[in-house]
Specification:
Structural class: mainly alpha
Distance between the termini: 141 Å
Strand content: under 5%
Order of helices and strands: HHHHHHHHHHHHHHHHHHHHHHH
Number of strands: 0
Largest sheet: none
Helix content: over 70%
Amino acid sequence: MGVGDRCFSVMQIKIMRSKPHEEVGDRCYEEGMYEAAKLLYSNVSNFACLASTLVHLGEYQAAVDNSRKASSTRTWKEVCFACVDGQEFRFAQLCGLHIVIHADELEELMCYYQDRGYFEELILLLEAALGLERAHMGMFTELAILYSKFKPQKMLEHLELFWSRVNIPKVLRAAEQAHLWAELVFLYDKYEEYDNAVLTMMSHPTEAWKEGQFKDIITKVANVELCYRALQFYLDFKPLLINDLLLVLSPRLDHTWTVSFFSKDAMQHAAESQDAELAQKLLQWFLEEGKRECFAACLFTCYDLLRPDMVLELAWRHNLMDLAMPYFIQVMREYLSKVDKLDALESLRKQEEHVTEPAPLVFDFDGHE
């Protein structure tokens, strides 16, 4: 028997004759005599103190077992944090499952993991806790936020399964900060912020736009102006699907405005194409459909592509000379400007012809002028 063991045996005898085991156990614990404290706490079945002692001895499994017997959140936290420090994450998770179910303890636990850079281990802990009977909104919310930062590929699936159990405003902010646009649209839809959902899809179509989802949400927006913006979005982004969008939007659109919108787009397209024949056919179509205002607008939008004689004939035949008059005034102004320039050039040419040619110099035989 060693000196330490003999001392301990003597101390045991004194303890039994005088002070309670627990009090001496506390003294041993404070002085780092963990083996002695372990024996003393075991004798009095002080499971909480015993669990604390066991982690100092590296006996993590026994510490977890005694934490279960102690059934104290404080003990679970102490053992959990000790296991994290010892990188015994399997045991830390076993303890953590008894901590995260308390909403007011969740933040401290998360900070302890995150401050030490153990994000993966924290995610695994929360994932394991979701199936617990006492799982609460904070757990689902914090896991969603962790996904947004460290595992964005898992966030949408998590939201699809548990969107009703997360704090949506809090997760919305996290998704926006992480630029997870598809997840942001999903949350806006569930939170009934349809205007923001549509705006997000139009601002980030590559990541966020889905045809069925867009057509479903656009019919619910509060701001009707977004319906018209959606038409322009489809013309720019998905022109072949514009008819499908019109079908779902038709009850909310002003048909006169919509026709004008598309007429304007057609005029712009014709002007950009620099196709004179296309511009002329469009002008004639406006007349056939009785769209007088569109006829007048087209005269200026496609000004450079239209022949004045053709415009004059159409305006005269359809009794639209009053609408076409501003166009002819502009044409006349340009013609007169060109004539004035030609007259000025002709005058300048004639002046140059009448300039007297300089007389040649004559030198005498001595080389003098």
